[in-house]
C-alpha cells in the first residue's frame, strides 16, 4: 500500500546497521514507547540533549509497518517517531514531528536463519532528524536490547551498482536526470565534479549493456560506468575513474557514500531496501 | 657553590634515597668543598622538585587537615590562616577540581554550622569534582541536613550542588536507600523545588508508593500548581500509571529548572582543559558507575557499566513467574553483585546485565558465564565484541588513529578476559582475520600478538590464507624483536590448542565436542600445519638474522613444546625441527642453544620410545602410529649430534642432505691437526667457556690450556 509508506519518501535518511535485538517483542510497542519517553526526559534533564529556547514536551510513538517486508520470514519494520508539542502553539496542541527512525529487514534471510528465537533481526536502521535524538534513541535501544548500531557507509563500488540498477528501472512520469557526483582527491581545496545525464540516454545505454533482464553482473556494471567515464573524458579530458564516486541520484533514489539515502519512488522502495539490507548484513557478519 | 647545589637538586629525581654505599665516592661532598658525611649531603639533594603540582598538592592537604581539625566557631575576618587555606581550596578547585577525599572533610565543615555562612558558601561553591565524589561524603552530609545545624541558605546551596554534581557520585545505592529522608524534606517550602528535582533524579519504580503520591497531592493542594511538583508527579505517573489517577496538564512550560550554578562552568572548563592536555579521555571505571563516555560517538562504548535488565517492564508474562514456587520472583540485580560469596549464594537467581559487553571487566559475571549453557549470551557478546572491534580498529577505520591508547586498553581487556575464561572468542578471531592483512605490525603490537595466541582450535582451518600469509609477510620484513614476539605468540597458540585438546579428550562424552565437527585427524592436521609454518619461518629468519642466539632461544622454546606433544598432551604427532633450525643450534656459538637442543632431542627420544612401546604392546587400538620416516629423520639427526659431540665423526657419518658431511681433503685444508679426534664436545665453541673453567679448576697453575687433557 503506497499511501502508508508515502511519508518515507523524499526525506534524507541516515543509514545504520544494527545487530539482532535480544528479547524484542512487537506486541509490546506501547510499553517501549513509554519507556523510551521516560528515558528521553531523563537524558534531557542531564543536559545531554541541548534544547535552546522553550522546553518541549516530547511524545514518542512506536509502531509497526507490516508492508515493508521482503519475504514472510522477515520481521515487520518498526517505526519510532518523536513529536513535540511546543507550549507556544497552545490550544490546538499540534504535534510537530521532530525525529523519526525505523528498523527494517527486507530479504534478510542470510542473517535471520542463523539466529535463535530470542533474537529479532532488523539489521537496517534509517534515521531522519537531529543527531542528538538519534543518539538518545539509539542508546536506549542498545541498552535495552543489547544491540550495536554502526554507521553504514556505501562504497563507490556499491554506489556504481546502484547507479546501474536504478537506471534500468522503468519510471512512469518524466524522470529527473541521473546525476553522479565525484570527489577529487589530494587537492588543496576540495573539488566535486557533478555529472548529469539525461535519464532516457542513461537508460538506453544501460539497455544495450545488460544482457539478461532481471540479472546484473559486475562486468555489466563496469562496462556501463566505463562508457560514462569515457564520454566524460572525450569532452573534458578528465579521468573520472581516478576520482571517488560519492553520490548517485536517479529517479528512483539518491544515495551518498556517507550512508545517506533518499527514496523517491514508492514502487521501488522495497527493492532499494533489499539492497541496503544486504549491505547492512555484510557489516554485521 | 650555592648555585651548584640548586642546579643539582633540579636534576635529581624526587625519590628518597634508600641505600647509600659508604665506599662509593661521594662526588657531591667533593664539589661542595669536602663535607665528609655522605648522609647529610645526600639529604640536601632531596629538596623538593620544581614541579608546581606537588607543592599544590601539599598545600591542599594542609588546607584539608586544617578544616578537618577546626573546632570552634572561627571568624574569617581576622583569621589569615583560614583565608589562606580557603583560597588554596578555591584555586585548586577551579584549576583541576578536588580529589575524592576532599569532599568528606569540606562537606562536614560546611554543613556543621561551625563556621560563618560566608565561609560555608565559599566552601560549597568550590566543591568541583576532579573525578568522582564518594557516596559516603554525600550520605554524611544528608545526616547533617537532618540535624539542621547549618543555616537554611546553606542547605539550599547544598541541594543545588547535589543536583548539579549528581552524576559524579560514584555509587548511589545508599542514596537510593535515603529516598524517604529526601522525601521528608518536601515539607520545607523553600527546599521543596530542589528536593523535587533531586527526587526526580533518584526515583525508581519501587519508590513510587501511594502514600507518597498522596503527600504530593496534599502539597499541591496547599501550595497550588507548582511545576516541580507536577514534574515529580508526572514521573510517578510514568512508572505507575495505575496509581496516579489525576490528569496532568500536558503543556507545561518548564518542569524543572536547569540550575547552572558556579559548578557547571567550572566542571566544563576543567573538562575542556583536560581534553586539550591529553588526547585520551580518562575513562572512569568504578564497577557499575557510569564512566565518562567518549563524546565522539554515541554508539560505541569500550567500557560499559553493568546494569540489570529492567525486568519488570520487559518480562513477557508475569503470570509465569508467580506460578513457579521454587524460584523467587526477584532476581539479584547485577549492580549488587560485589563478592564471590554473593555469587555463590545467589547463583540460582542471577541474571546477566542488559548489555553483555559489560561482563568483560567483571570477573564474577565471567565466572557465572562459565557455568551457563545459554547460547544467547554468547551470541550477544559475539555481536557486541565483533562490532566494537571492527568499529574501533585504529588501522581499519580512517579517523581512529587518535584513539589508539583506548583501543589498546580495550584489546588488553579482551585478552585478559580470554585468559580468565581460558578460551578465545570467535568474534576476536574473525576480527584478527579481517584486520591482520591491513596491519602495519606496529600499532598495538603486543596486544594483537597476544590475541593471536587465543585463536580457537577447529579442524575447519583456513589458517593459511587468513593468519599465516599476512603474518609471514610482516614477519620477514620486521625487526628481530618482532620476529621473536611472533614466535612466542605462536608457541602460546600451540600450547593453548594442546591444552584445549587435553581437556576435551577427558570429556569425550560431551556431545558439544562432536557438534564442533572436530575429528582427531582434523586436529592433528591443523596442529601439524602450524608447526610446519613455524619451522619454515624460523629457517628463513635464522638466515636473515644470521643465527642470533636471541632468536634461536625462541625457536627452540617452540620446539620444546613440540617434542613433548605425545607424552604430555596425548596428541599423536611428532614433527622434527627442520635442518635449518637443527644445524644452527647444533653449531651455535653459545651453550644455551646447544643445551636446549640436547634436551629437545632427549625428549623426542622419550616420546618415540613410548610410542614404539605402545605400538608393540598392542594393549590399545591405536589410531595413529608414527611412520618409519619419523624414526629415520630422528636417527639422522641423532647420528649427526653424537658425531658432533662425542665421536668426532660427524663429517663422515652425517648423511643428512643438508648436513655436515665433508670429504677428508676439505677437512685437511682446515689445517687442524688430528682432525679425526678434534671435533667433539671439548672443542665445541659453545663449550669453550666450560672447558676453560674445567682446566682452570683441575690445573690452576697451568696457563697453556691444553684441551687434549680433557677426555
Describe it for me?
The complex is a heterodimer of chains A (285) and B (711). With 285 residues, chain A is of the alpha+beta class. Chain A folds into two domains: 2-151, no CATH class; 156-257, no CATH class. Chain A contains seven helices and 13 strands. In chain A, strands 1, 3, 4, 5, 7, 8, 9, 10, 11, 12 and 13 form an eleven-stranded antiparallel β-sheet that branches. Chain A has a two-stranded antiparallel ribbon with strand order 2-6. In chain A, helix 4 (156-167) crosses helix 6 (218-236). The longest helix of chain A is centred in the C-terminal third of the chain and has 19 residues, at 218-236. The two termini of chain A are 32 Å apart. Chain B is mainly α. Among the domains of chain B are: 54-262, no CATH class; 338-456, no CATH class; 683-710, no CATH class. Helices cover 59% and strands 0% of the residues of chain B. Chain B has helices at 2-11, 27-31, 38-44, 52-69, 80-96, 100-111, 117-125, 135-147, 152-164, 173-177, 179-184, 192-202, 210-223, 227-239, 261-277, 311-314, 318-323, 340-345, 363-371, 375-392, 404-421, 426-435, 445-452, 463-476, 480-506, 511-515, 520-545, 549-563, 565-569, 579-586, 591-617, 628-647, 650-653, 664-669, 688-698. In chain B, helix 13 packs antiparallel against helix 14 (227-239). The interface between A and B is large, with 41 and 38 residues.
